[in-house]
Amino acid sequence: MIDKLIQKIQKTQAPIVVGLDPMMKYVPSQIREAAFAEYGETLEGAAEAVWQYNKGIVDAVCDLIPAVKPQIAMYEQFGIPGLIAFHKTVQYCKEKGLVVIGDIKRGDIGSTSEAYAVGHLGKVSVGSQSFYGFDEDFVTVNPYLGSDGVKPFIKVCQEEKKGIFVLVKTSNPSSGEFQDRLVDGKPLYEIVGEKVAQWGQECMGDSYSYVGAVVGATYPEQGRILRKIMPKAFILVPGYGAQGGKGADLVHFFNEDGLGAIINSSRGIIAAYQQEKYAKYGEAGYAEASRAAVLDMKEDIAAALAARG
């Protein structure tokens, strides 16, 4: 799957992943009203609104980008109907040819981690049959519990030729409370990065590993360091746009081959119509505003990489 992701990045010339992180305040009123008219102001109504909203965005941008990243919490808040909307979104995006990164940030030990890995990446056995659960192509994994929490995911990745992105240096302001702590003279994020490189040796694609890393755009200097520590790991970079990251901050996340990183933008794209820059599209044109935001992001990143030489 890492090879497929790279091929799609090269084809689209867009190392971009759109974060499908729907909140009701982002969903245009016409979509909410139609969903509530059918299902009422219920969890089912909210889930239907989210699904229709996602579908419009995916239809508008699927030819421009290689991948999407639905954040499962935004669906779980609506209970079982929300999880159904998550599953429908994953399947629809795959039908559109997009690589799907499930942003689930799971990590546990033993059979619990195995169940997470099977449920999101692999197949679960039911009697003599086996079935995919959510069936994402990649998922995000929290390494805080150590190798016991990560290796079950790696095992399923090897079986299914899928991938993971391990949290290494996250984009949020308080990430340094733990991640920047010195351990034997090194920041903890460097030690985690070293483990990612080690784990990745066990499952290589053609040029990059199935085991990638999450490193926030808001920490470009740490990105420079981690790029050297993890030369064969693809880096998923959140924090572009709404969190303050911009193209010029991102060049150090890429290798000399121009690959090695994929940049995420969530509300900067899916709620673009609420920004002054794209207000001309209005609520009715929310999907077209998202498309315009993707094109602008693509241009920003391309210009930054070209300036690097």
Give your account of this protein's structure.
By secondary structure, the chain is an alpha/beta fold. It has a single domain, classed as TIM Barrel (Alpha-Beta Barrel). 46% of the residues lie in helices and 16% in strands. It has 12 helices and 12 strands. The protein has helices at residues 2-12, 29-39, 43-61, 73-76, 79-95, 110-120, 147-160, 176-179, 188-200, 220-229, 267-270, 286-308, and strands spanning 16-18, 67-68, 99-106, 123-126, 129-132, 138-141, 163-169, 182-183, 186-187, 211-215, 235-237, 261-265. Strands 1-2-3-6-7-10-11-12 form an 8-stranded parallel barrel, surrounded by 7 helices. A two-stranded antiparallel sheet has the order 4-5. Strand 4 and strand 5 (129-132) form a beta hairpin. Helix 2 (29-39) packs across helix 3, helix 3 packs parallel to helix 5 and helix 3 (43-61) packs across helix 12. The protein is globular. The two termini are 29 Å apart. The model has no long low-confidence stretch (mean pLDDT 95).
Compact overview of the structure:
The protein is α/β, with parallel strands linked by helices. The chain has helices at 2-12, 29-39, 43-61, 73-76, 79-95, 110-120, 147-160, 176-179, 188-200, 220-229, 267-270, 286-308; strands at 16-18, 67-68, 99-106, 123-126, 129-132, 138-141, 163-169, 182-183, 186-187, 211-215, 235-237, 261-265.
